[in-house]
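Subject: complex prediction, re-run

Hi both,

The earlier run crashed halfway through, so I resubmitted it with identical inputs.
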Amino acid sequence: MEPFLLRAIAAALALAVVAAPLGSLVIWNRMAYFGETIAQASLIGIALGLFLGIDITAPVIFATLVMAALLIGLSRQKIVPLDAILGLMHHGALALGVILTLSLTSGAADLMGFLFGDILAVTVTDLYWIYGGGALVLAILAWLWQPLLRLAVHEELASAEGVNRDVVKAVFIVLLSLTIAIAIKIVGALLVIAFLIVPAVAARPLASTPERMAVLAAVVGVASVVLGLWGSLTVDIPAGPAIVLVMAAIAGVSVGSAALARRT
Amino acid sequence: MNERPGESAEASCASAHGAHSHSHSHSHGHHHTHDGTCCGGHGAPKRPPGADILISARALAVARSGRTILSDVDLDIAAGEIVTLIGPNGAGKTTLVRALLGLERLDDGEVQRRRGLTIGYVPQRFDIDRALPMTVSRFLALGEGARQARIAEVLEEVGAARVANQQLSELSGGELQRVLLARALLNDPDLLVLDEPVRGVDYVGEAELYTLIGRLRDTRGLGVLLISHDLHIVMGKSDRVVCLNRHVCCSGVPETVAQHPEYVRLFGRDEARAFAVYQHRHDHRHDLAGEPAPVRPASDPTDGGNGGPSGGAA
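This time it finished cleanly. Structure:
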């Protein structure tokens, strides 16, 4: 097998595993659109990184965290509902990101690559980032798993029982932002949240406990990576969208059949 | 302002306490002798010396966005006693509970807990998201002190052993409340706090649940703080009832509170009539701003010299 293909598989598999528990938590906390919105901000970070001529990881983390802070601040206002705020910030960030990426680099940037990722261009350095960062994210998630679950079940109850709500949630958002920064080169700003939540959605009807859902999400993610990459090479379609399409198809079948089963 | 003589004092309990105007003090309403149990917002009832007080609130005040939610609330809960907090919607019941739990920032006053106090809490709303798969056992394992054997034991104690492997989102209202009660009991609390424990529970289930709570109090010697709308059953099972409407309108043994004019006004005569066997007594009235004003503060021996909240004019 070609080395670039091995790197692509290694990167995508690692990402699928890291994304599974994180994506499950995103769904349980109803943060899918929140995640989507901070992911769009990563494009602004990419533009900054390109402009400054540095690796994009740090500026992407910075941009996503700034967006997260903005959203948390805006969620406290009572004038406009939160989904409208998310819609506004999501599209605003995308528009600004596209403009900055193109204008700061005088049109030389590979915009499509940043929006949809370029999994076949993964380098060895990228792999270090993915495996190092991914291991860190998984380790912290494992360490905070109980309090994160308790907050997802019931924030008030968890706080009353002594879980430090603000700290745990802040750590979670940092982990989300870190994962987005790691994943962005591979799957792009537009598809990164799909990597997180679609496998978790697919796993939901098949799981009876949160841990099983996270594990099943990882299985769905890994299977989608393998099938998607294979499909992408066989019929010459872009790899990132191919993987996401496989994930979406599995999720559609899983949720659809569970909904039908419930009706009868 | 509507001023039908004889009603203004009662009606004022529901009015805003945010406006601290005492100048319109006004002597419509009942003049009653003090009976020692209905003490309208100032001073907790007398308790035998040496009672094991678990938690005390003193002069508690909470305001949010310029609105007074609670003012000058005193409350004590002792081990082995069931205290029920009643009051209309928006009376601040949940806020008071949250303040006691340390979840609410206080604007004034203080909450003192007995050293090492453990609290078991059953929150008012528990709508588990269907996106989160969670069996009853797994949910209980999230709590403190949760070994599997212990979980089975506590589920047995609350009569919910057979739902151990069901999904939380598929439980009936009564089953869910028992499971939440089990969760609260897992860390062997000294004080059990239940916010509307009979939400979504049918009438028979309600009575059973309160019997269970009473039994837990007896076997474990717990202090229990209940919030409820549900007057009849609650009052029958309570040692003490506190009627809250942003301040403590009245408190005492259930029969006395049921006859208190504040209670009658807040909950209607039909509710109160169920207890209409005791003589009607009342120690305070309200001025037009809704501030409780002692009728005869100088001669009131149980007021402990604090003469009513914020200098209610007399």
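The first helix of chain A runs from residue 3 to 28.

- K.
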